[in-house]
Amino acid sequence: MKKGKKLYEGKAKIVYASSEKNLVIQHFKDDATAFNNKKKSVIDGKGILNNRISEHILTYLSQVGIKNHLVKRLNMREQLIKRVEIIPIEFVVRNIATGSLTNRLGIEEGAVLDSTLIEYCLKDDKLGDPLISKEHIYTFKWATRREIEKIDRQLLRINDFLVGLFRGIGIKLVDFKVEFGRYKNNSKNEILLADEISPDTCRLWDMNTEKKLDKDRFRKNLGNLIQAYQEVAKRLGILHEQSNVRPLRFPKPKAVKIKNK
């Protein structure tokens, strides 16, 4: 697959054109950012781990019927993905109270929510990714009612799957952020899960110690971010040696079945 010109560069990834019109190449950078890019650093190997972890999870999700943009991993840092028009909304799914939820509402840190909470944020760094309502989405036509209803259903299924996946390896899924995009399939727009799912976009706590295994280690100056990401990859069964930052062996994910809700 031939890499073409740069189409977009974000805080953690670069998207390049490919030799096929409807496919692009997504490159994972080592850049770490927090607080809407106010805190920045470069952490060697982070992009490699996120690439592999995200590929692993998206592959599993496609096997249980969650359509996403992943076509295949190309190398240590790049994936071939479907070219989508990103819906300008960040979808945040919460199971346990932490982060901005506790700051905004005074909810006790670590409180388990009675039901899964879905929040919507406008994807705009300059505005600080403000929290918005469904009424904002419909009024300003960022997405249709039908699209949001479909995405909400998928978010709950994704959450159920990820909670079970991480629980099986001794990790609590506290919350996660995802994006969706529109993919033109035979002149019709198809909604696909996009971006990535990794310790950069999830809050992951060890079930026994509540040690943070995600980007909060960078946000809160806890250190050892790479070691935490490696621990997640190791427990997922995709990193068998930790003597080197780079994962050395990549077994293919096994098929997983879940019941549709």
Task: Provide an overview of this structure.
By secondary structure, the chain is of the alpha+beta class. The protein has a domain at 88-224: D-amino Acid Aminotransferase, Chain A, domain 1 (2-Layer Sandwich), CATH 3.30.470.20. 26% of the residues lie in helices and 33% in strands. The protein contains six helices and 14 strands. It has helices spanning 46-63, 100-105, 134-139, 145-167, 216-219, 225-236; strands at residues 3-9, 13-18, 23-28, 31-34, 39-42, 70-73, 78-82, 85-86, 89-96, 112-122, 131-132, 171-185, 188-194, 202-206. The strands form three sheets. Strands 8, 9, 10, 11, 12, 13 and 14 form a seven-stranded antiparallel β-sheet that branches. Strand 10 and strand 11 (131-132) form a beta hairpin. Helix 1 runs parallel beside helix 6. The longest helix has 23 residues, at 145-167. The chain is globular, with a radius of gyration of 18 Å. The N and C termini lie far apart (38 Å). Residues 241-261 have low confidence and may be disordered.
What secondary-structure arrangement, pairings included, does this model have?
Elements lengths: L2 E7 L3 E6 L4 E6 L2 E4 L4 E4 L3 H18 L6 E4 L4 E5 L2 E2 L2 E8 L3 H6 L6 E11 L8 E2 L1 H6 L5 H23 L3 E15 L2 E7 L7 E5 L9 H4 L5 H12 L25
